[in-house]
Structure formats: structure tokens, C-alpha cells
Design brief:
By secondary structure, this protein is α/β, with parallel strands linked by helices. It has one domain: 3-Layer(aba) Sandwich (Rossmann fold). It has 6 helices and 4 strands. A 4-stranded parallel sheet has the order 2-1-3-4, sandwiched between helices. The longest helix has 32 residues. The radius of gyration is 14 Å and the shape is globular. The protein starts with a strand and ends with a helix. The model has no long low-confidence stretch (mean pLDDT 96).
Length: 159
Amino acid sequence: MTLVLLVCTGNICRSPLAEAMLGRELTSRGVPEIAVVSAGTGAWDGAPASEGAYLVGLEHELDLSAHRARLLTRDLVQGADLVLTMARHHRARVDELGGEGRTHVLGEYAGRSGGEAEVSDPFGGDLDLYRETYTQLDDLIRLSVDRLVSEHRDSGRRE
């Protein structure tokens, strides 16, 4: 089983949406051997998804009602085969926890550069801002999943 860890700040907006979106995409492609989890560099353990993330998730048939935030830990980082972060400062924190070499900013993993590589934080914004974040995540996840599946299948052939 390959484990992908998605990381943002509070683990209540971007990474829970990305976790649900990536999980759905992997399931639709018939790739059950890749599991997806999320965490936050400054998360309050047990906090629910933000209202905006929850509502935008529902608009796209994703149910975040069971999501509970968790703080990024060394154990989570060590257990992940791949860590995808929403911003560069998240990647720096993951690297501090031992994830160097397995960590990418989601947009860079998807082939984007500069400002397009980072996913902006909608926390505190209106529902339209959360919708923009969803659209940005949708684009990056679609671009990333081909690479992820290809790398996963290639690593399986070498083992």
C-alpha cells in the first residue's frame, strides 16, 4: 500500500478537500492500493472541516462531515511514501520532520511553477473563494494523478 499525505496549515480547508478529491479520483481509476490522508502544520487535533470546505465539498458530492483535523507529526511524515503540500512553507516544515526527498508542493508535482504551484488558503473567505480553491485543486489533482499512478506502477515493477 502506498500512502500519500496532503498537508496545509489547519487541515480544515485545502488538504481535506484535496484528500477527498484525490481519493475519489484514485477510486474512479481503479487504484485502491494508494491511500490518501491529510494533516496540518498548525492543526487543532479534532477540529471539523471548515464550513466553506464542507459546503463546497457537498456541491461536488464529497462528504467532509467525518473529517477531523490532525497535526502534522514526524510519525505521519515517516509513514508517507509521498507528501504533497499546498505551499512551499508547508514543504519546509515537512522536510524538518524528515520528509525531504519525498515531498513536493502539489502544483510543482503537477508541473506548475511560480505562483501557480501554490494553492491559496480560503480560510475566512466567502463561499466563492472556497469554490476558487476547489477549482484550483481540481486542476492540480487531475494533473498530478497521472504522474502518481505512473510512478506507483513503476515502483511496483522494480520491487
